[in-house]
């Protein structure tokens, strides 16, 4: 049993102390890209991995990275990509982020090639691009269905290359970049309003670590582990979201959670594991238990002119994209997830409450194995299903949070806390109310780089006058880590996590209502109370019960933020569907929800969204804009 | 359709350890990692196990199950008999930290010793042109999820701590092969270095690494053997040997 150590003086606390210019929390795509940029700017960088180096959730991204390179269809370009992204997000996106993203993602992909990435090729030797939901042209750079692995490995190897160079030049591989594997950050430290560092513990030993650092980049990914059925790994506990809230920053639009339409549903132990959208991009069709391609019945008004309303045209599209409309299986994810949900509810679901996804009739077996190797592997080994011969059973799974830390689009600086930055899934705004597939991998490259550059510029601007870490901050952070060992009580962290996951799944899931959201808030509150009685068994040495007790607090904060924002937004849009307010309302498009933390409770405030400038507004037809904006807004012409 | 299964789990730290027997529920379709998680949630809350994605994509939950190196998330319970006791132990080739978690830092040190990709200087980003057939060879090796099962099973280091210093292991032979076969990599002495600095010669191609690879990468046939053959070619072909002495073959061409 660990001894009670809370309430002691900083001078009596044992911890490792490091000093860096920038600490990057998170070693997925965004974090690694930020670290590369900050190093290139001449800064000393710490990379914090919650797991081993190279294992972050980015490895699970399958389909590809969206970038309008125009390699497959030369009509593509940043303007088309920008339009698709805004449509996908139902125009709630931070337009500046969507603009930067569309303009810069091709450069970010090409840059990866110079670091050794090997994407699949076109016939003329360029990077191949594949179709995906909501993208007008084939746009996703990919490597089979393991694109995320290629991204993370390329950047991991880029970091190693930089360390090798530093070793050659300075005799010390870790002079500029040091990787801290299996370390959890539990507090952002501040000096006045500015970041002064962060504090955490080695997962392996439980020993505490202080980082003195004027800049911290949050790149901690998502929140999926707050839901029962999710495609996310254990790391997705919303750490960065919670760290930002507790540091005094704000989250934006937390009600928008993406349920990926196709997760595995059977057997139960694999429920939620992702089935890539590439299956549909490469011709897979969705059917119900009557054999109907039901997606034709779910094309929403705003997309009627872009999607085929009959099978013949949808099938022709795979051969001739210029003269046919897209198959409705390739609608944005929110639409497809709701459709599947509705089919199952109406009793037209598959044996295990999903629907069927079949690619075996479209492509020959060899081609399926070549294009979708890990899907073939995954179904064969985990479900005894051969996808070259049989349909898959799929259903929605919690996949991505559009909401996140409110940031400055150009520098990735977090709102309200100088020295704090955020990039990737933990940042909000870029995707509006719904993210298009493929836009995440490009997002983390574009804004990871911008966060690294933003942090570097900020640190240089301090001219050596770094904020200082006070003893009081260290004591507070130390107590926070040790609290679970000192408590009286016998709550089991695993049981509480499971209860929380059930609550969010059942009451804050794909379809929401006022009464259920209110019920969820009461239940979350009661779990929070009980979480104060979680007692950790055993010592600090690699103790998962202890790790979970710490993570649980973050999951509670995130779940409450989602539920409260969802309760406020009385409309349906993208990844937020209210049964009691089923329509999208242009009045609501004008507002973003800001989430803050008072120290005791989560508070939500509606903030007026910035209108698109004329030059971006003019990229759309007026008829389309009318579906999303109020007449008053459009009369002003976007000024 | 839950049934009770018997498991023997190794518990301990770098100094001591022992097997603990547990009986635990297993449901239809479950993998070994599911059952370990159930043990953790209901019987041993501090049982240390490393895992991330639970979908065979990250390579974190490597351990030995009934003596065989495996990913716990891809090992179905129904592979084993109803009455069979399933024994789980940490990877043998690496030092134990706690329970099923080992210190795999050896692999990260070796990664640091493999020279990185050197792209062509005359091509700007976006100007790379490569054919699919030419990238496919390297792509096979880039499927590697770094689970280090191949390292664990390789008998050159499995019970021979003394070889670790001079032997990079199968994971890094495929990394070297991947770079060597990359159509645009400019570093030309990779095979030679594999032989002289990374211990390629110590491998006697028993293919144990290929057998345990969860990504089904043909480590021995497609990476190790071709590299060994080429090294031998250069070493023993008198004309090429002479050429290598006259022309500059070291470093970047």
Task: Please provide a written account of the structure.
The complex is a heterodimer of chains A (639) and B (253). Chain A is built from 19 helices and 22 strands. The model of chain A has no long low-confidence stretch (mean pLDDT 95). Chain A is α/β, with parallel strands linked by helices and 639 residues long. In chain A, helix 13 packs antiparallel against helix 14. Chain A folds into four domains: 314 residues, FAD/NAD(P)-binding domain (3-Layer(bba) Sandwich), CATH 3.50.50; 137 residues, Flavocytochrome C3, Chain A, domain 1 (Alpha-Beta Complex); 123 residues, Methane Monooxygenase Hydroxylase, Chain G, domain 1; 31 residues, no CATH class. The termini of chain A are far apart. Chain B is an alpha+beta fold. Chain B folds into two domains: 100 residues, Ubiquitin-like (UB roll); 142 residues, Fumarate Reductase Iron-sulfur Protein, Chain B, domain 2. Chain B is built from ten helices and seven strands. In chain B, the strands form two sheets. Chain B has a five-stranded mixed sheet. In chain B, strands 6-7 form a two-stranded antiparallel sheet.
What keywords describe this structure?
heterodimer; A: 639 residues; alpha/beta; FAD/NAD(P)-binding domain; Flavocytochrome C3, Chain A, domain 1; Methane Monooxygenase Hydroxylase, Chain G, domain 1; 4 domains; four-stranded mixed β-sheet; 19 helices; 22 strands; B: 253 residues; alpha+beta; Ubiquitin-like (UB roll); Fumarate Reductase Iron-sulfur Protein, Chain B, domain 2; five-stranded mixed β-sheet; two-stranded antiparallel sheet; 10 helices; 7 strands; 36% helix; elongated
List the helices and strands and how they pair.
The complex is a heterodimer of chains A (639) and B (253).
Chain A: E1 15-19, E2 22-25, H1 29-40, E3 45-48, E4 65-66, H2 78-88, H3 95-114, E5 129-130, E6 140-141, H4 147-170, E7 177-180, E8 183-191, E9 194-202, E10 208-212, E11 215-218, H5 239-247, E12 251-252, E13 257-264, H6 278-281, E14 285-287, H7 311-317, H8 333-345, E15 355-358, H9 365-371, H10 373-383, E16 392-401, E17 404-405, E18 420-422, H11 439-461, H12 471-486, H13 493-507, E19 511-512, H14 514-531, H15 544-568, E20 577-578, H16 586-589, E21 591-597, E22 602-608, H17 614-617, H18 622-625, H19 631-635
Parallel strand pairs in A: 1-10, 2-3, 2-11, 3-7, 11-18, 19-20
Antiparallel strand pairs in A: 4-6, 5-6, 8-9, 9-10, 12-17, 12-21, 13-16, 14-15, 15-16, 21-22
Helix pairs in contact in A: 1-4, 1-11, 2-3, 3-11, 5-15, 9-10, 13-14, 13-15, 14-15
Chain B: E1 3-12, E2 17-26, H1 32-42, E3 62-65, E4 68-71, E5 85-89, E6 96-98, E7 101-102, H2 105-113, H3 132-142, H4 149-153, H5 155-158, H6 170-181, H7 190-196, H8 208-212, H9 219-236, H10 238-246
Parallel strand pairs in B: 1-5
Antiparallel strand pairs in B: 1-2, 3-4, 3-5, 6-7
Helix pairs in contact in B: 3-6, 6-9, 7-9, 9-10
């Amino acid at each position: 049993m660990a001894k009670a150590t809370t309430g002691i003086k900083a001078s009596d606390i044992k911890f490792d102390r490091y000093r860096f210019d920038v600490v990057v929390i998170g070693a997925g795509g965004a974090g690694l890209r930020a670290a590369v940029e900050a190093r290139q700017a001449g800064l000393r960088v710490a990379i914090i991995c919650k797991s081993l180096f190279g294992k972050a959730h980015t490895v699970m991204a399958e389909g590809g990275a969206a970038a309008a390179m125009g390699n497959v269809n030369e009509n593509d370009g940043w303007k088309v990509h920008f339009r698709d992204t805004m449509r996908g997000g139902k125009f709630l996106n931070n337009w500046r982020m969507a603009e930067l993203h569309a303009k810069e993602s091709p450069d970010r992909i090409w840059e990866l090639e110079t670091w050794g990435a090997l994407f699949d090729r076109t016939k003329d030797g360029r990077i191949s691009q594949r179709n995906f939901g909501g993208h007008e042209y084939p746009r996703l750079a990919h490597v089979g269905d393991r694109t995320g692995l290629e991204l993370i490995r390329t950047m991991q190897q880029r970091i190693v290359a930089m360390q090798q160079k530093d070793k050659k030049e300075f005799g010390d591989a870790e002079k500029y970049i040091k990787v801290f594997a299996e370390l959890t950050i539990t507090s952002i430290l501040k000096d006045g309003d500015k970041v002064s560092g962060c504090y955490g513990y080695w997962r392996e030993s439980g020993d505490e670590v202080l980082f003195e650092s004027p800049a911290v980049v949050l790149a901690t990914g998502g929140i999926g582990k707050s839901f029962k059925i999710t495609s996310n790994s254990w790391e997705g506990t919303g750490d960065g979201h919670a760290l930002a809230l507790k540091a005094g920053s704000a989250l934006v639009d937390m009600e928008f959670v993406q349920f990926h339409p196709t997760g595995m549903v059977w057997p139960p132990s694999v429920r939620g594991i992702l089935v890539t959208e590439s299956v549909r991009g490469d011709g897979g069709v969705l059917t119900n238990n009557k054999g109907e391609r039901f997606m034709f019945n779910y094309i929403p008004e705003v997309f009627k002119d872009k999607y085929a309303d009959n099978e013949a045209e949808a099938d022709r599209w795979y051969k001739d994209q210029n003269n046919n409309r897209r198959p409705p299986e390739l609608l944005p994810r929110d639409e497809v997830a709701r459709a599947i949900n509705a089919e199952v509810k109406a009793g037209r679901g598959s044996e295990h409450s999903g629907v069927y996804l079949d690619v075996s009739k479209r492509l020959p077996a060899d081609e399926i194995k070549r294009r979708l190797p890990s899907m073939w592997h995954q179904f064969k080994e985990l479900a005894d299903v051969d996808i070259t011969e049989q349909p898959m059973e799929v259903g929605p799974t919690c996949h991505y949070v559009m909401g996140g830390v409110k940031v400055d689009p150009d520098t990735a600086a977090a709102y309200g806390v100088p020295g704090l930055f955020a990039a990737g899934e933990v940042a909000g705004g870029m995707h509006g109310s719904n993210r298009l597939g493929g836009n995440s991998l490009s997002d983390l490259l574009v804004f990871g780089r911008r966060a690294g550059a933003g942090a570097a510029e900020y640190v240089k601007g301090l001219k050596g006058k770094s904020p200082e870490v006070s003893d009081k901050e260290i004591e507070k952070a130390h107590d926070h880590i040790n609290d679970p060992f000192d408590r009286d009580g016998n709550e089991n962290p695993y049981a509480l996590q499971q209860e929380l996951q059930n609550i969010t799944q059942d009451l804050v899931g794909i379809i929401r209502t006022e009464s259920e959201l209110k019920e969820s808030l009461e239940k979350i509150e009661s779990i929070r109370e009980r979480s104060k009685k979680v007692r950790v068994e055993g010592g600090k040495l690699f103790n998962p019960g202890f790790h979970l007790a710490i993570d649980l607090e973050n999951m509670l904060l995130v779940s409450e933020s989602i539920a409260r924002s969802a309760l406020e937004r009385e409309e349906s849009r993208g990844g937020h569907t209210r049964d009691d307010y089923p329509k999208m309302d242009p009045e609501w498009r004008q507002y973003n929800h800001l989430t803050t933390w008072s120290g005791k409770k989560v508070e939500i405030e509606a903030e007026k969204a910035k209108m698109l400038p004329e030059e971006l507004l003019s990229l759309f037809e007026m008829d389309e804009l009318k579906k999303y904006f109020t007449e008053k807004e459009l009369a002003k012409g976007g000024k | 359709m839950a049934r009770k299964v018997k498991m023997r789990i190794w518990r301990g730290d770098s100094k001591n350890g022992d097997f603990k027997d547990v009986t635990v529920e297993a449901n239809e379709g479950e993998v070994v990692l599911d059952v370990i998680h159930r043990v953790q949630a209901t019987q041993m809350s501090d049982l240390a196990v490393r895992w991330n994605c639970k979908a065979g994509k990250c390579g974190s939950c490597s351990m030995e199950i009934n003596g065989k190196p495996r990913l716990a998330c891809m090992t179905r319970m129904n592979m084993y008999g109803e009455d069979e006791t399933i024994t789980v132990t940490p990877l043998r080739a690496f030092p134990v930290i706690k329970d099923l978690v080992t210190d795999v830092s050896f692999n990260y040190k070796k990664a640091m010793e493999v020279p990185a990709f050197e792209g062509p200087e005359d091509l700007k980003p976006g100007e790379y042109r490569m054919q699919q057939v030419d990238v496919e060879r390297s792509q096979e090796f880039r499927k590697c999820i770094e689970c280090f099962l191949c390292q664990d099973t390789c008998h050159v280091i499995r019970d021979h701590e003394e070889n670790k210093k001079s032997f990079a292991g199968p994971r890094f032979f495929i990394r070297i092969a991947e770079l060597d076969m990359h159509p645009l990599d400019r570093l030309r002495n990779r095979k030679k270095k594999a032989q002289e600095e990374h211990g390629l010669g110590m491998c006697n191609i028993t293919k144990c690494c290929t057998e345990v690879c969860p990504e089904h990468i043909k480590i021995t046939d497609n990476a190790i053997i071709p590299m060994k053959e080429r090294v031998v070619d250069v070493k023993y072909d008198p004309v090429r040997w002479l050429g290598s002495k006259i022309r500059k073959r070291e470093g970047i061409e």
